[in-house]
Design brief:
The structure holds two protein chains of two kinds.
Chain A (H helix, E strand, L loop, with lengths): L4 H4 L26 H5 L11 E15 L9 H5 L7 E15 L3 E5 L6 H9 L6 E6 L4 E2 L12 H11 L4 H15 L14 H12 L6 E5 L7 H17 L2 E5 L3 H7 L2 E6 L2 E6 L1 H14 L1
Parallel strand pairs in A: 3-7, 3-8, 5-6, 6-7
Antiparallel strand pairs in A: 1-2, 1-4, 8-9
Helix pairs in contact in A: 5-6, 5-7, 6-7
Chain B lengths: L2 H7 L3 E2 L6 H10 L1 H15 L9 H21 L7 H24 L5 H6 L6 H27 L11 H25 L3 H15 L6 H4 L4 H7 L3 H13 L8 H23 L9
Chain lengths: 294, 282
């Protein structure tokens, strides 16, 4: 664990102490893993298989005001140092380690607030680790493109925009356009602005665009259920197809059936601690036994 | 063997690590189609629910110029620069490009958190798209600006075309400003609250509405400061190129160019240094 020197100083007792400058270019708060910390970990790598993601002794902490407001990472915290008494540190992940290999489909389970989403965010690089680190062959991506789309534009233009946002070239988008429209079942409405779509229609369009991409490392966060029963079936089939083509998949879900059906490995996290890692049937059985006990 | 070396052996990299500046610029360049499409889409959707639609792009600065022209025309009395209406139109129209880039740039990361958190692309694309969007709206504004100049009695001349290199230099400068503001806002959200004030102060201190030589002739040292003012010099060049009789010092090109390159270089490095920081939940 890394303790920030500035945080140990009580400004009331040391009024002459000057904290680091606010506009410093120091980004060392991001690279908090040190060489010897890494050396101590006991990560076992099966050298007969190709590792795709390595998560090494990962700790994630959030600092939250007791009032619930998040604390700014660098500058704002020091500005507000005198009001720091209400700050609580939430230790969301406590030393997660595993190696994911090619063609593995890993389900992540655990009760609410156990740190599943935090783990996935840390894998995509969106949440900084307090210590430990994540290595990956390519940047893991979330199955989602909704944020890149603009409601005021027609579905057709949004396909172009979403495709380019996913990293396709303009020609590739043109090639996929028909297929996306057909999959989303929006042939008649594709020229209308997206804000006029029903929620089901725009969910279908977003899914169809996102699902057109080939992913090396894919993260699915309970995205399986979109649209009506008919589209849900087709989207599940599409996800299975993506899974077959993708290198490695992480799947967070509360539906044990969907984990059993789609995953060949399962990791159970409870209160930030890695409880179990192994065959889905065994892990799910243990998890359900744990739930009953509570 | 440490885990880092082990990872290296299998060709794995630390997730979210910041690339070198050259790679970073290359990655951004490969996203140019996305940047352009995003900018274009935003221009199209920005006014799509207004009845007058895109006409607002030129209507808004026209009203601004009318209002400022009337108020400051009366206030300045005899100190008004010659050809005052054209003077104000050029000032207000070009300054609009600067303020929208600065304000939009400041919000380009914090206002797109969902996008930054769901897709991996060089974050530089977002402020660049913002300035591109503002440049795209500037084009019809420039057309209308020349139209007003004609109506207000300016004789067309070849030097009108010099507005093209000037706008390019101005875009480079604005890009630098947008990048700096984008990163500051990520660290200190409160910055967006002061930004309108900064914009206002700059508006009244960049000679948008007055001629420095006439207003400040009692304080020669202040006029000397304005000789190196990037915004004032940009407006001076534009006025000299468009208006019938507006003197300027050709050195202004050098000053504007130097400001543009220095601001962009600083902005790029400053923005790139915090690449890993953008989009993080804090």
């Amino acid at each position: 664990m890394r303790i920030n020197f500035d945080d140990l100083i009580n400004p009331d007792l040391h009024p002459e102490y000057e904290p680091e400058r606010i506009f410093s270019d120091d980004t060392s708060f991001i690279d908090v893993v040190t060489q010897d910390e890494g050396a101590n970990s006991n990560l076992y790598i099966d050298s007969t298989r190709q590792p795709v993601v390595m998560v090494d002794n990962l700790h994630v902490k959030y600092q939250v005001y007791s009032s619930g407001k998040a604390v700014g990472a660098s500058g704002a915290r020091r500005l507000l140092q005198s009001n720091m008494r209400g700050v609580r540190t939430v230790h969301a992940l406590k030393g997660i380690s595993f190696v994911a290999y090619e063609n593995e489909s890993i389900g992540v389970i655990g009760s609410n607030g156990s740190g599943k989403s935090t783990l996935l965010k840390a894998i995509t690089g969106l949440t900084p680790p307090a210590s430990g680190s994540v290595y990956a062959r390519s940047r893991p991506s979330l199955l989602g493109v909704g944020a890149a789309l603009i409601p005021g534009l027609s579905g057709d233009k949004n396909i172009t925009l979403g495709g380019l946002a996913l990293g396709y070239s303009r020609q590739e988008v043109e090639k996929m356009r028909e297929e996306i429209i057909k999959f989303a079942e929006l042939e008649e409405f594709i020229d209308l602005p997206m804000r006029t779509y029903s929620s089901g229609m725009s969910a279908r369009l977003k899914f169809a665009i996102a699902a057109s991409k080939q992913h090396d490392i894919l993260i699915i966060d309970e995205a399986l259920a979109v649209g009506d029963a008919k589209f849900k079936k087709r989207s599940e089939a599409k996800i299975r197809e993506i899974q077959e083509n993708a290198g490695t998949i992480f799947n967070v879900s509360h539906s044990m059936n969907s984990i059993k059906e789609t995953c060949n490995r399962c990791i159970w996290i409870e209160k930030g601690v890695q409880k179990m890692d192994g065959d889905p049937d065994t892990v799910i059985k243990a998890y359900q036994a744990h739930l009953k006990k509570k | 063997m440490t885990v880092a070396e082990e990872a290296e052996k299998y060709g794995l990299h630390r997730v979210g690590a910041r690339p070198s500046l050259v790679d970073y610029l290359k990655q951004t360049w490969s996203r140019r189609e996305f940047i352009y499409e995003l900018a274009k889409a935003r221009v199209q959707s920005q006014n799509d629910r207004n009845r007058l639609g895109m006409i607002w792009v030129v209507l808004k600065p026209t009203f601004n110029a009318l209002m400022y022209g009337m108020i400051f025309g009366v206030l300045q009395g005899a100190n008004k620069p010659p050809e005052f209406p054209v003077f104000v139109v050029i000032g207000v129209f070009l300054f609009e490009f600067f303020t929208t880039s600065m304000n939009g740039g400041a919000k380009s990361i914090t206002g797109n958190t969902a996008l930054v958190q769901s897709l991996a692309f060089p974050r530089l694309s977002l402020p660049v798209a913002q300035v591109t969007q503002n440049l795209l709206t500037l084009v019809p504004m420039l057309g209308v600006m020349f139209l007003y100049a004609l109506i207000l009695g300016t004789t067309p001349k070849w030097s009108w075309f010099m507005i093209i290199p000037l706008v390019l230099l101005f875009s480079v400068f604005n890009m630098g400003v947008a990048l700096i503001c984008a990163r500051i806002t990520v660290h200190i959200r409160d910055f967006t609250n002061i930004l309108p004030l900064i914009g206002r102060v700059l508006f009244y201190t960049s000679g948008v509405l007055f001629s420095v030589d006439r207003i400040l002739n009692q304080w020669p040292w202040m006029i000397a400061v304005f000789d190196f003012h990037p915004l004032y010099q940009t407006l001076s060049i534009a006025r000299a190129m468009i208006m019938n009789d507006s003197p300027y010092d050709p050195m202004a090109w050098l000053i504007v160019g130097a400001w543009a390159i220095a601001t962009l270089a600083f902005g790029l490095i400053y923005f790139w240094k915090a690449e890993e920081r953008y989009g993080r939940a804090d």
